[in-house]
Amino acid sequence: MEQRVLLCDTTLRDGEQAPGVEFDRPEKEKIARALVEAGIDELEVGVPAMGEEEAKRISQLVALKLPVRLITWNRVVLEDLAASYRTGVEGVAISLPVSEQQIKHKLRKDRAWLLEQMGRCVRDAKKEAGYIVLGLEDASRADIAFLKEIIKEAQKLGVDRIRFADTLGIMEPLSIFFKLQDLTREADIPLEFHAHNDLGMATANSLAAVQAGFKALSVTVGGLGERAGNAALEEVAVALKYTLKQEVRLDLKRLNSLGSLVSSLANRQVPRAKPIIGGDVFTHTSSIHIDGIQKDFANYETFPPESVGRKHSTAFGKHTKYKNVVWLLKSKGIDCNQDKADELLRKTLAKIEQLERPLEEDEILGIVLSS
């Protein structure tokens, strides 16, 4: 049986790197508990090296003894790792820049130094942590031969998982598939893909990574994260199940409440057209679509909204037809003849023109009651 893809949530780390977002201790706990109750596989909970307050919040999450692995993010620096060990966290992610751009112009070092420092940090972590993720920052711009060299060395050192990060979100699904498929042939340990959404391809790229043989995906609730954000947990989970037909441990019915919780605590409104959790994504307005779902919801929906904690709805716009109004009234148990339906349609279209927007079902029913 094919191994299930792990969903590794980093809302409490990379998500909190979104501009203006900061979660206090109770908020971190609420998000962590909600994700665990939904069935997440792993939580990346922060960066202890940021300071005492951040480390304290992480220690408090560790003290909850949640039934899921908690890991922290660290630079390839021994002092960072020491701060993580003090929190009591089970796992550590050690991130090292691997592109020539970042090795030379960020670290101002060379490949030999990086490999030596990687070895030093991993050997240290092996003594103190129960699980080690080696994060390859800016891997999408790195030399493929150097990536293979790192993978081989990481395996010798006993790393548990390797994370390939498309740090700038510049890759596309076809290049992801072919490049990452080449890497999976070199790896005897699980590979994880960490996508950024700068060009709007984070979910597609994450699926391509799975098709290339990757066994773990890094996600955040609502795609919250640095710049344009990360691969969205809700999009990736639903696409894994309904597009790739893969087993998903996550309770998809909790996705909507998760999105609402995180957007509220982050003080960021969910866009109305946001896939899965947006306000409009299960609302039909076109008369053709409304007619289609009257006959069979599968005409215009690939999966039932109830499966992700949502419901069908309709909104009536300027293209609303007579039969759409009749259907709405009948669905609410309201009898009507043709004259009544014609009159309601006329008033509905007039109201739509006045407000310059579609009307929700309740607004149309209000017109019925006022007639």
Top CATH class of the largest domain = Alpha Beta
- Span between termini: 62 Å
The CATH homologous superfamily name of the largest domain equals Aldolase class I
Q: What is the CATH topology of the largest domain?
A: TIM Barrel
Overall strand count: 11
Helix/strand/pairing category: alpha/beta
Average pLDDT number: 93
Alpha-carbon Rg, integer: 25 Å
In helices, the fraction of residues equals 40-55%
CATH architecture descriptor text of the largest domain = Alpha-Beta Barrel
- Element order: H for helix, E for strand: EHEHEHEHHEHEHEHEHHEHEHHEH
Discrete helix count? 14
Strand order of the largest sheet: 1-2-3-4-5-6-7-8
**Unreliable segments of 5+ consecutive residues:** none
Mind describing the biggest β-sheet?
A: 8 strands, parallel, barrel
Description:
- By secondary structure, the chain is α/β, with parallel strands linked by helices.
- The protein starts with 5 loop residues before the first strand and ends with a helix.
- α11 links the parallel β9 and β10.
- The radius of gyration is 25 Å and the shape is elongated.
- The chain has two domains: 261 residues, TIM Barrel; 88 residues, no CATH class.
- The strands form two sheets. Strands 1-2-3-4-5-6-7-8 form an eight-stranded parallel barrel, surrounded by seven helices.
- Helices cover 45% and strands 14% of the residues.
- α1 packs parallel to α2, α7 packs parallel to α8 and α8 crosses α9.
- The longest helix has 18 residues.
Topology:
Blueprint: E1 6-9, H1 25-38, E2 42-44, H2 52-63, E3 69-75, H3 78-87, E4 91-97, H4 100-107, H5 111-128, E5 131-137, H6 144-157, E6 161-166, H7 173-184, E7 191-195, H8 202-211, E8 216-219, H9 233-242, H10 255-266, E9 283-284, H11 287-295, E10 313-316, H12 322-331, H13 338-355, E11 359-360, H14 361-370
Parallel strand pairs: 1-2, 1-8, 2-3, 3-4, 4-5, 5-6, 6-7, 7-8, 9-10
Antiparallel strand pairs: 10-11
